[in-house]
Amino acid sequence: MGGITPFTATDYPGLLAAAIFVQGCPWRCGYCHNPHLQERTRASPIAWNDVLSLLERRKGLIDAVVFSGGEPAIDPCLADAITQVRDAGFKIGMHSGGTHPQRLQSVLPLLDWIGLDVKANFADYADITKVRGSGVAALTSLKAVLASGVDYECRTTAHPALLPEAKLLQIAQTLAAMGVKNYALQAFRMQGCADPALNNRMVGNYPSPGLVEQLGKLFPNFTMRRG
Ligand code: SF4
């Protein structure tokens, strides 16, 4: 485990939660806010039993536990970890980039909610992740989520240097055509971003109100997050 946040009101929709950060991610997005979690080290900064003990003490104070990262699906023990937390009585959420579709599919029956990143048009994924073939993994993951019936949100991080508005619209149209109902656009935040080339390049009215209005018409549930 890379760490734990014992209390968060923003990581599971509508519920107070703890967030567990799993170490490791095979992708290298420039806007990653947890670049210190991209490498998977041999020694875990926090022992799993300590995580379980902390959660035990949070009973009654939080309703859910969110597995985040890094990329939680990188961990071969993910299903066991989720099962233990579930058995302790918590609802289970997960944040994923869709890096490992098979493992994701195997844990979907254990989840109550998932937030799945959609980083780009699937053919352009390597522009963001720096990893060839990542779009295929992401698309397969998205199809698995939609087929599972698990509550979900698809979300895209919007940065004008990476995703001009025409691309944002293409992504949204692709998702709407696939049957995505819950979609959020998240304006890039500089805090924690490791890539100086991306900082200070946000444009004041990006994404524009006109685009936001267009996207709002494509989905039953659309959210624009700024700041
Ligand atoms: S997929 Fe997520 S955790 Fe991995 S590098 Fe990209 S933003 Fe960071």
Task: Describe the protein in words.
- It is a single chain.
- By secondary structure, the protein is α/β, with parallel strands linked by helices.
- The protein has one domain: Aldolase class I (TIM Barrel, Alpha-Beta Barrel), CATH 3.20.20.
- The protein has 7 helices and 8 strands.
- An 8-stranded mixed beta sheet has the order 1-2-3-4-5-6-7-8.
- The protein is globular, with a radius of gyration of 17 Å.
- The site of iron/sulfur cluster has 11 residues, from loops.
In brief:
By secondary structure, this protein is an alpha/beta fold.
CATH topology label: TIM Barrel
Report Rg: 17 Å
Mean pLDDT: 94
CATH class descriptor: Alpha Beta
CATH architectural grouping? Alpha-Beta Barrel
Shape: globular
Q: Strand pairing plus helix content: what structural class?
A: alpha/beta
Strand content: 15-25%
What binds here, in terms of ligands, is: iron/sulfur cluster
Domain unit count: 1
Distance between the termini: 28 Å
Number of helices: 7
* Total number of beta strands: 8
Strand order of the largest sheet: 1-2-3-4-5-6-7-8
> Sheet with the most strands?
8 strands, mixed
Q: Helix amount, in percent?
A: 25-40%
CATH superfamily assignment? Aldolase class I
List keywords for this structure.
7 helices; 227 residues; globular; TIM Barrel; binds iron/sulfur cluster; 8-stranded mixed β-sheet; alpha/beta
What secondary-structure arrangement, pairings included, does this model have?
Blueprint: E1 3-8, E2 17-22, H1 48-58, E3 64-69, H2 78-87, E4 91-96, H3 101-107, E5 113-117, H4 125-129, H5 134-148, E6 151-158, H6 165-178, E7 182-187, H7 209-218, E8 221-225
Parallel strand pairs: 2-3, 3-4, 4-5, 5-6, 6-7, 7-8
Antiparallel strand pairs: 1-2
Helix pairs in contact: 3-5, 6-7
